[in-house]
Amino acid sequence: MTAASFREAVIDLDAVTANVRTLALRVAPARAMAVVKADAYGHGAVPVARAALAGGASWLGTADLGEALALRAAGIEAPVLAWLHDPGADFTEAIGAGIDLGLSSAEQLRRAAADARAAGRVALVHLKIDSGLSRNGVPADEWAGVVALAAELEREGSLRVRGVFSHLANTSPDADDAQLAVFERALAEASAAGLDPELRHIASTAAALSRPDARYDLVRLGIACYGIPPYCDGTTSAELGLVPVMTLRGRVAAVRRIAAGDGVSYGHTWRAERPTTLALVPLGYADGVPRQASGRGEVLLGGARRRIVGRIAMDQFLVDVGDDPVEVGDEAVLFGDPATGAPSADDWGDAADTIGYEIVTRIGPRVPRRYVGGAA
To answer: Can you give the pLDDT at residue 66?
Structure first.
């Protein structure tokens, strides 16, 4: 950290590569897609994409077309799938850039075909069936009509159905079984319509690890690429052979001694029970540190985990260090690799009543990313 940057997120690209390699070996012979949507869950889409490809990912996944096009603009030529589109989306640029389109309706199919004709190209599409998550995807009762239309457009030459996919809710084994049954019927109907997709995919990270029968030809690896477990059951990254990629840290900006009874931060929700020392860390909810973790989140400071006291503010929070020595400039690690003694992103998720996914993804642009390892 420099004097101008007293906060930073350190992104370990070697950890990305190692995590993807570990995961790809576990799901083989299915191919691995590394999902880099939302700026790679806050880690930086372009450097993470390159590191994931170096680890054995053969596909990249994004939510929207802008994210996919940014990868192409950076010179990344690997197959990319984008699956969530504005109702008035123009697919022309994406088709020209060789980006695969995840489509969830007959209207999207028609628009993709029209844009492909206008561009003199063939659109590569993956048709999504809603197998029970009740989000985007073709409803099961409309699927037969959509695959018939897709087969007609494929024969016409304006598009090619490269994949059929869905998404599991990861609710329970029985619920997953029911969704897989819907998916199997959808595949059979696609085949009966004359489609022969080379890629079938339904598993994101959780199912990819726990349900070999859900791997099919491709799995979409998301949060585990970043070293965070996909489960909310206390499983650690180390138990899965993964290394957390992001370390969020800041430097102590002020130190002060307070007396017993003194209140701390807005609303004085915490008062000292005894004389103690407070360390001020210049990170707050403007940086993505969740205010909900006030009084519950911990940081690694001075070789020990210490509790935040008082409310987390927009730009800062306070840590109780008791009678231990602390100085301005000392490093405070909010989360990182628990093997170093630091809290994990999941620990912060627990403190904020959310999940580790949200903790890393919400770290804002005011926090500089510093890349180490890989192509950094």
So the answer is: 97
> How many helices (H) and strands (E) would you count in the chain?
11, 19
Q: Assign residue 282 the CATH number of its domain.
A: 2.40.37.10
Identified catalytic residue from 41, 128, 231, 266:
266
* Sheet strands (E) in 114-194: 123-128, 159-165
Identify the domain containing residue 129 by its residue range: 13-226
Single residue among 226, 261, 290 that ends a domain in this structure:
226
**Is the domain of 116 the same as that of 182?**
yes
Kindly tell me if the per-residue pLDDT of 237 is higher than 60: yes
98 and 205, same domain (yes or no): yes
Spell out where the chain has E strands: 7-12, 31-35, 59-62, 80-82, 100-103, 123-128, 159-165, 199-201, 218-221, 246-251, 254-258, 263-264, 270-271, 276-281, 298-301, 304-309, 317-322, 331-335, 369-372
Q: Read off the tokens for 268.
A: 């004085």
pLDDT of res. 232? 75
**37 included as an active-site residue:** yes
Token duo for residue 71: 């990868």
Kindly state whether residues 251 and 219 are assigned to the same domain: no
Q: Are residues 127 and 206 in the same domain?
A: yes
Residues 221 and 263 in one domain: no
Q: What is the overall mean pLDDT for the chain?
A: 96
Residue 231 falls in the annotated catalytic set: no
Q: What is each CA distance from 344 to 36, 41, 228, 374, in whole angstroms?
A: 21, 15, 9, 22
Q: Which of 37, 216, 285, 357 is catalytic?
A: 37
Q: Is 196 exposed, middle or buried (0-12, 13-18, 19+ CB in 10 A)?
A: exposed
Q: pTM score, two decimals?
A: 0.94
Q: What is the pLDDT of residues 338-351, one digit of tens each?
A: 999 999 999 999 99
The verdict on residue 263 lying in a domain is yes
Report how many domains make up the chain: 2
Instruction: Specify whether 118 is located in the same domain as 218.
Output: yes
